Amino acid sequence: MPRSSRFRKAVRTGGLMSVCALAGGALSVVSAQSQTSRAPAKPPAAESHAEALVSQGRQIFRFDDFGDNAFWSGALQLDKAIAGEKNGGVGPGVSPKTALSVGLKVDANALPKSVLSALKAGKVDLNSPATTLALVKLNAVVGVKPHFKKSGALSSIGLTCAACHSTVNDSVAPGIGQRLDGRPNRDLNVGAIVSLAPNLKPVTDLLGVDAATVKKVLAAWGPGKFDAELFLDGKAFRPDGKTAATLLPPAFGLAGVDGHTYTGWGSVTYWNAFVANLEMHGQGTFWDPRLKDAAKFPVAARAGFDDVRSEHDLITARLPALQLYQLAIPAPAPPAGSFNAAAAGRGKVVFQESGCARCHVPPLYTEPGWNRHRPEEIGIDSFQADRSPDGVYRTTPLKGLWTHTKGGFYHDGRFATLLDVVNHYDAHFGLSLTEAEKRDLVEFLKSL
Fold first, then answer.
1. Which of 21, 79, 121, 331 satisfies CB 3.0 to 4.6 Å to 399 for a cystine?
2. What gap in Å lies between CA 433 and CA 417, rounded to an integer?
3. What residues does 176 pair with on adjacent strands?
4. How many CB atoms are located within 10 Å of the residue 143 CB?
5. Residue 165's domain spans which residues?
6. Which ranges in 263-340 belong to alpha helices (H)?
7. Is residue 409 part of a domain?
8. What is the C-alpha separation between 412 and 244, in angstroms, rounded?
């Protein structure tokens, strides 16, 4: 059996649901010494190839759980908590009202017209877990992937990339509308959702703590936050006592950007592999010898997360298309009237002349190349940077800032407003900006 941790072996118990393999295009090989009179086949154009990958990547981003249903249902039994005792599960169940309150979203395009009409007329029972199950079976709950038995009954659920990195436009009702891929779901209370699981033993075994401690940690996260490093270093709280979880980042506007995360982990495709294997607990292959460092990453080293080899790899083949789709998602333009255009024009000058553009280089609004900085360079503590392999923070791209103002700014939301960010840098770099210049600079940031 391939090498893996005891934790991952436990997660796989119960078997995996069969998953359809992606159809891949193959380039024709043209022989230099053709033995036939047929014209040599031409490889597909780059544009056609890219279009196919983007389409595949969208499906993967939205609907592929990489076999992680073995963890979320097989191990944690989260599906049973959602169903509730009256529907063959355990406990009271999760109603749509409860699901929406913890930030789950509903894709209106996945709903039949009759259901949409009933929703708008207030004729859908949003207090019944049976309604939640019906929505899950329709594949309408964003980021929740249903799996079915041959009889058609729901057998398990998995989670997809879209759970954390998509939201909806609320066109039908709050939390119900058309998908907005790439935008961080800052309403999603991941900790509260995981706490619903009837069986937290896989998590307690990994971290070496009891269930009460795990629930305390999860409760501290709050909406829009997740702690990706918890399963690596076991550090649940910062030195100041606040949660070590960080804000869910955008997955848009990343073309040309080196580094996908707040700190120095790696590229878009690295992070996709990292999250799919180690955070979503899908079934794949992952290699990062940096995680063998037992002093820095004691949990990961003990669990063997530096070298993951699943018997059936449901992740690796998806990475190219998933990467290209994410790189293709543009940063959304701010809505008309959401900023003062005249002030933004003045703020653009302040942005350039005060030195902001030295790091946030237009039009990427991050540095081309290695866009990382030591904590002292940007005037903050090193806690989160020290949880990454090289102890640095990434220069965050600024386009689309208006979409993720909820929860604050910086990796942990320490600055409640953009003005707070401007004030921090004004003090740290001794810019001596006037109050009017600060306000104009904020309007420029809102315009990106």
1. 331
2. 17
3. 106, 173
4. 24
5. 63-181
6. 268-274, 298-303, 319-328
7. yes
8. 8
pLDDT exceeds 80 at position 95: yes
Distance CA 209, CA 216 (A): 11
* pLDDT over 60 (residue 20): no
Encode pLDDT of 326-361 as tens digits: 999 999 999 999 999 999 999 999 999 999 999 999
Q: How far apart are CA 133 and CA 261, in angstroms?
A: 34
User: Given a cut of 50, is residue 28 above it in pLDDT?
Assistant: no
CA 241 to chain centre: 25
232 has pLDDT over 90? yes
Bond into 363 cis (ω within 30): yes
Structure-block tokens of residue 224: 């829009």
Cα–Cα dist 385/285, whole Å: 26
- On whether residue 149 sits in a domain, the answer given is yes
pLDDT of the residue at 42: 63
Sign for the CA dihedral angle at 419, 420, 422, 427 comes to: positive
Last residue within a domain, chosen from 164, 181, 198:
181
User: Is residue 276 one of the residues assigned to a domain?
Assistant: no
Task: Return the number of other C-beta atoms located less than 10 Å from residue 277's C-beta.
Answer: 25
Give the start-end residues of each E strand in 237-396: 246-247, 285-287, 307-309, 372-373, 393-394
For position 40, what pLDDT does the model report? 60
| 394 CB-near residues (< 8 Å, 6+ apart) | 259, 261, 262, 263, 264, 366, 371, 372
User: Which residues make beta-bridge pairs with 418?
Assistant: none
Closest CA to 48 of 82, 73, 25, 78: 25
Q: What is the dihedral of CA 395, 396, 397, 399, to 10 degrees?
A: -140
Is 321 within a domain?
no
- Residues paired with 441 in a beta bridge: none
Q: Which two tokens stand for residue 123?
A: 């004729």
- Torsion-angle region of residue 98: left (phi > 0), alpha (psi -120 to 50) or beta? alpha
Spatial separation of the C-alpha atoms in residues 152 and 39, rounded to whole Å: 49
Task: Please state the domain count of the chain.
Answer: 2
Asked if residue 413 has pLDDT above 70, the reply is: yes
Cα–Cα distances (Å) from 436 to 350, 402, 432, 440, 443, in that order, read 10, 21, 12, 6, 11
Mean confidence (pLDDT) of the chain = 91
> Angle between the 341-353 and 435-447 helix axes, to the nearest 10 degrees?
110
> Can you point out the beta strands (E) in 131-241?
144-148, 154-159, 166-168, 176-177, 179-181, 225-226
In sequence order, the β-bridge partners of residue 166 are 181
Q: Which of 129, 148, 181 is the last residue of a domain?
A: 181
